[in-house]
Every structure is written in structure tokens, then in C-alpha cells.
Design brief:
heterodimer, A: about 190 residues, alpha+beta, Ubiquitin Conjugating Enzyme, 2 domains, about 45% helix, B: about 300 residues
């Protein structure tokens, strides 16, 4: 049974200093086991300027068992699955303790964005790129931040929709937009030249 | 109960079925996290076969366990049986030290009805709370655990109501929703004490784990299931002001050839006037009327595990 009175207190405490930390946690539904956390991308990283949403699921044993957390926002990072958003972080596994909170866990995830650990990867492809070709990694991560983690990323979605309406498959549209750095006209040109 | 009987791996390990399974499975599909999950599932399954706190057993049951084992251990158990009558086993889930301490302490209070001791420890618990607040822990992270311990403490002494029965104490100690909360309470107290006196503990921790004090507390004290060492025992004993005797049952033998069983008493650092005691330490001829109280908590240590011992 989740300790709901504790969860309530955690939400209050976390959202009290939201202006300082930029980190918030809010219920997704009214049952308090499904929550959404928000963390700002750390300054000076490819994630700067992005707002990342984290899906939080509280298991019955919370706070003895760690909260289940994964990125709901797509992110390009060695320790986060680019497919599923799964996070490789010790405190979300065997190093969890009831002394930690949802907020401290989110702060740790934010710290992970600042300091990737490519030697203990969640996403092997990203980790390889990080180690072998940091420049490409950084620009891809930045592009993903632009595309998925910014409110203006709605712009990207509009571009995608527009190109899809022209008859191109969505997957191809997205990958092409990514290759050309989000430029709609260049993407169209590329898509047409096939 | 990590005895030798459980150490041998499954016989299949060496059979051909295993090898073919090994080749058939692509191990690159297994992530570290999967392996970890599986491993902890195996540990949990093993641990779940025994209750958090077992029944009191005569010391002969310990002897039976080593019947075909090391002669040194059998000799030592014989020596033990001169002083000790019984053992109470705790689950080998990494929380055994804290769980043994919990049961042993509450059982002592239940049997002795030592109200002065209860008042004394409550004062220390209040200090521990202040320590954690001072270290920046949010109240809601620890208050439930503190409240539950105080509740258990009050339930074993005569107050407005009669104390709970010994059977009820056992039932509660086996109930995860009580037992784990009290274990976590002790983990908070231990962590707070170590961090408060980080200069004192630092050299021990560095020697043990090559970690900073804060890292050590985060990784080896506060998570459930992390095993306890000298550092934990010293800190808990000091913080609560409760002496603890640990009796060591291992294969080491004395140079003289005679068999003896070593023990170590963890005697809490005097916490009266913490600051003045060091300054006035030498000048006070009688700082403690009973400098070496015999600990009423006696734990049996076998490498990797703690159980409770009962004197004759």
C-alpha cells in the first residue's frame, strides 16, 4: 500500500520551491500513484532550454520500493533509452532508500543529464556515439531537445504534420527533419529527391 | 542464514544442458539491470523462507548446523554454550543487525519494564531527530519511522494500557509494515550519527569502502538491505546510548592453541555534555559510575550475518 500521506507531503514540499529548482511533481490522475515530474534541462548541456517530463509510477511498497520513473519526453542520452525513456540510475534501483524523495530522485536525474555515464549505458547506440563522436552526439542531443523538449517543439509537430499530409510516411519525415536540423524546406527537398 | 550448505551452486552448472542453454541464449540481450533483478529475486526467495525474526532455539541447534563442519567452530560453539543458552535467528536479508537489535531491545524492555531506560532512550531519539533536521533532512522523510518506533517502545511498557504480550512482540517483528519501519528508523539514526560526527567516522569509512562519509551513508546505510559493519554498530550504539556485545563465531583460532570465542563490546561514547566532556575529560575522576556496563544486547556474528544470543 503506497503511503499516500507521505506522497501528499512530498508534492507540497517539492512544489513549494519550484521557482528555485524548476522541478515539479503533479498527479496525473486523482489516485496519486501516477505522477508527472518536470525537470529543466541543465544549463551548459545539450539539454539546456528543454523541459523534460518524467512519468512516475509509485509501486505498492513506496517509499520502501523506489518510484518507477521514465522519460515521457524523448531524449538523446547514453543512460536513457531513446526508444522507451527508461533510465539507468542506481538510486532508482538497488540504491533507493526511503530517505530519498521524488524530488531528490528528479534532482539526480537532472544531474545525470549534466554528467552522462557512457560506461554504464542504457542506450548502447547513444553511448557509442558519445564516446566515439562527441560532436555528433551533442548536436543530436540538442536537436532532440529542440524537437521534443521545447514548447516551441509544437512547431516541429506542425512541420511533421504538414509533410505527412503531403503524403510522406511519418517516420521518414521525422528522420529527414532530424538530418537537416529541422529545416522544413530542406526536408521537403530531401524527401522529394528521395 | 548464510551457512556453508547454501553456498554450493546448482549441480546443473556443469552439466551439458547448462552449456547448451548458455550458447543458445545471447547474453548480450541481458542488461546489468536484468541480472541484478534476477539476483535480488533469488536472494529474496531464499530470505523469505525464514521469518524476519525466528523462534528462540537452544544453542544445540547451532551445533547441529555445523555437525559435519569445521571442528574449530564446533569447539567454539561448545565454549559459547558455557555462557549462552539460546539463539534467535533473524532473516539474512542485509537488515539482520538492525532487526536483531530491534527485537533484542524491545524484548529487554518488555521483560525488564525498565521505565528509566525508556525515558533515557526517548531523549536520545529526540536528539537524533534534531540531528537529522540539522543535516537538512525533510521531516516527512523520517517522521513516520520515528513515530512507529516510539509506538513500539510504548507498547512494551505499562502505561495507560498493559504492555503487549511476548507473542504479540514476535508477531509485530515479523510483520513487514512494522519491522521494516523500525529497521529504517535505525538506519536514519545511524546515518545521522555518522554524518554528525563525520570527522570521527571518516578514517574508518575510508579504510572500509574508499567512499566519502556522505556517499557511504547514501549507499551503505540508508538503503534497506545494506549490510552493517563496525561503523554502523558504533554509530547506532552511540546515538541511542545502548551498549551492544557482539560475539564472533568464525574459524580464527588463537596462537596459543586454546579455543576461545572473541567478543567486542560497543560501549556508547558518553553523550552527557558532549562538548565539555572532551575538555574536562581528564579532570573528572569519575565521569561514569558504571564505566563498563554489561550489554544486555548480545548478538552472534558469523561472517555476513547477525543473530540474537541469550545468556544462561
Amino acid at each position: 500500500m503506497v503511503d499516500f500521506s507521505r506522497v501528499q507531503k512530498e508534492l507540497q514540499e517539492c512544489n513549494r520551491d519550484i521557482n528555485v529548482s524548476g522541478i515539479s511533481v503533479n498527479p496525473k490522475s486523482d489516485n496519486l500513484t501516477n505522477l508527472i515530474g518536470t525537470i529543466p534541462g541543465p544549463i551548459g548541456t545539450p539539454y539546456e532550454g528543454g523541459t523534460f517530463k518524467i512519468d512516475i509510477n509509485l509501486p505498492d511498497g513506496y517509499p520502501f520500493e523506489p518510484p518507477k520513473m521514465k522519460f515521457a519526453t524523448k531524449v538523446w542520452h547514453p543512460n536513457i533509452s531513446s526508444q522507451s525513456g527508461a533510465i539507468c540510475l542506481d538510486i532508482l534501483k538497488d540504491q533507493w532508500s526511503p530517505a530519498l524523495t521524488l524530488k531528490t530522485a528528479l534532482l539526480s536525474i537532472q544531474a545525470l543529464l549534466s554528467a552522462p555515464e557512457p560506461d554504464d549505458p542504457q542506450d548502447a547506440v547513444v553511448a557509442q556515439q558519445y564516446l566515439k563522436d562527441y560532436q555528433t552526439f551533442a548536436s543530436t542531443a540538442r536537436y532532440w531537445t529542440e524537437s521534443f523538449a521545447k514548447t516551441s517543439s509544437l512547431g516541429v509537430e506542425e512541420k511533421v504534420q504538414k509533410l505527412v499530409e503531403m503524403g510522406f510516411p511519418e517516420g521518414l519525415v521525422r528522420s529527414t527533419l532530424e538530418v537537416v536540423g529541422g529545416d522544413e524546406n530542406m526536408a521537403l527537398e530531401k524527401l522529394c529527391s528521395g | 542464514m548464510e551457512n556453508q550448505d547454501e553456498i554450493p551452486v546448482e549441480p546443473e552448472t556443469e552439466s551439458s544442458t547448462f552449456i547448451s542453454a548458455y550458447e543458445a541464449d545471447d547474453w548480450s540481450n541481458y542488461k546489468d539491470s536484468d541480472v541484478m533483478l534476477q539476483q535480488s529475486a533469488i536472494f529474496e526467495e531464499d530470505a523469505a523462507k525464514s521469518p524476519f525474526v525466528g523462534d528462540k532455539e537452544p544453542l544445540s541447534s547451532l551445533e547441529a548446523e555445523y555437525k559435519s563442519g569445521s571442528p574449530i567452530l564446533l569447539e567454539k560453539i561448545k565454549v559459547l554454550s558455557e555462557q549462552y543458552a539460546a539463539i534467535r535467528r533473524t532473516r539474512g536479508d542485509g537488515n539482520c543487525f538492525f532487526r536483531s537489535f530491534m527485537f533484542s531491545y524491545l524484548e529487554h524492555i518488555l521483560e525488564s519494564q525498565d521505565i528509566a531506560e525508556v525515558e533515557r532512550i526517548k531523549t536520545n531519539v529526540e536528539k537524533c531527530k534534531k540531528t537529522l533536521q540539522g543535516l537538512g533532512y525533510a521531516d516527512f522523510t523520517f517522521e513516520d519511522f520515528f513515530a512507529l518506533f516510539i509506538e513500539q517502545l510504548e507498547s512494551v511498557v505499562t502505561g495507560n494500557e498493559a504492555p503487549i504480550s511476548h507473542d504479540e512482540l514476535i508477531v509485530r517483528s515479523r510483520d513487514q509494515s512494522v519491522s521494516d519501519y523500525v529497521v529504517m528508523f535505525f538506519r536514519f539514526v545511524t546515518s545521522g550519527e555518522i554524518r554528525k560526527r563525520s570527522e570521527f567516522f571518516e578514517p574508518f569509512i575510508f579504510g572500509l569502502a574508499n567512499l566519502t562519509v556522505e556517499q557511504f551513508c547514501k549507499t551503505s546505510v540508508e538503503p534497506m538491505g545494506e549490510e552493517s559493519d563496525h561503523v554502523h554498530i558504533t554509530a547506532l550504539s552511540d546515538a541511542l546510548g545502548v551498549p551492544i556485545r557482539v560475539v564472533y563465531l568464525d574459524r580464527s583460532s588463537c596462537d596459543t592453541g586454546g579455543i576461545s570465542v572473541n567478543h567486542h563490546d560497543f560501549v556508547p561514547a558518553s553523550d552527557d555534555n558532549d562538548t565539555s566532556s572532551s575538555a574536562a575529560g581528564g579532570s573528572d575522576p569519575n565521569p561514569n559510575p558504571n564505566p563498563n556496563p554489561i550489554p544486555f544486547i548480545v548478538l552472534l556474528y558469523r561472517p555476513g550475518h547477525y543473530d540474537i544470543l541469550y545468556r544462561k
